[in-house]
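My current task is to audit a protein record that another person submitted. I have pasted the whole thing underneath without changing anything:
***
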Amino acid sequence: MPLSATPQSLDQASLREWLGEQSAQLGFDGLRITDTYLGSASDRLKEWLSQGRHGHMEYMQRHADLRSNPELLVPGTVRVICVSMNYLPPEIDFDAEWARLEDATQGVVSMYARGRDYHKVLRNRLQEFAKAIEERIGSFGYRVFTDSAPLMEVELARKAGLGWRGKHTLLLNRESGSTFFLGEILIDVPLPIDQEQDEHCGTCTSCIDICPTKAITAPYQLDARRCISYLTIENPEAIPVEFRRAMGNRVYGCDDCQLICPWNKFAKRTLLPDFAERHGLGGATLLELWSWTQSEFEQRHEGSAIRRIGYSKWRRNLAVAMGNALANPQVRGEDKVAIQVALSNALSSADTLVAEHIEWALSARV
């Protein structure tokens, strides 16, 4: 949408207060405002891309210039309204999550992906928010985003004061840890901007130390090519053999750096039903997930972020986890036999990508 003339004669103080109240009514847990200047973050992005750390995420390279300047993405933009929305449902318990990671027969899906697709949830509410602003101040130029455009949203949220950048590169704040989604409204209204937060990670390196594949190569440095979230979601090819054992039973994403983070002890739970667990994803076994046909996969993940990876990559990830279960000395007897049979029965009808991972899994021995 082309941006229109900036509304004149706004009562900035009362409008700012109203924005906070309105955003809370729509289910957002934080709101801050910043300008469009990204400073040295643009140079850091270019360096990261030049090192190839984005892997197969070519879209990041294609739109690097747009990421570096929101004004290029939406001409006329002078401010960014940044919001956060907590996603951790009440039923999730971190101790139970660690226990599931230790049970090789379980299929572990990242906590954020067990409910509805956050893109849809946030985008709809952001659009509703923008319309409410328009009703209050009159016509203005805007566009809404949530992880759906070439926008450095974590850096913008950091600048706006929604949190500070953790050493794992995720945004952290005192109230919600890192278990929240981000959304933005790019606007042509010169609202007052908010202050940045101080960093509060101190000397802690828990996220770096816990990473199964050592993807956090240094504080604030992430090599996506090693990250289990990238390997199981963004990576379109075979999972490199060097990382398969480290994946364990993680079949979609990885939460280790968040589970270990001391700030997530304070993570607030959401009461939004959109993010409640669906289809038993918080307690499903590998065999249960493997048993889904393609039509069952598509039906059960309707409206879920998981559906985006497709059935083949889903099976690829599961095959790796099942191979790790077969190699785990704690998996014995009927469980082990059942996994071997399930893999063997699927081999003849599997596509090339999945077949290679099944063969690797079946070769696993204690």
Q: What stands out?
A: Residues 12-187 form one domain. The beta strands are 30-34, 79-86, 108-109, 142-145, 164-165, 171-172, 180-187, 216-218, 221-222, 250-252.
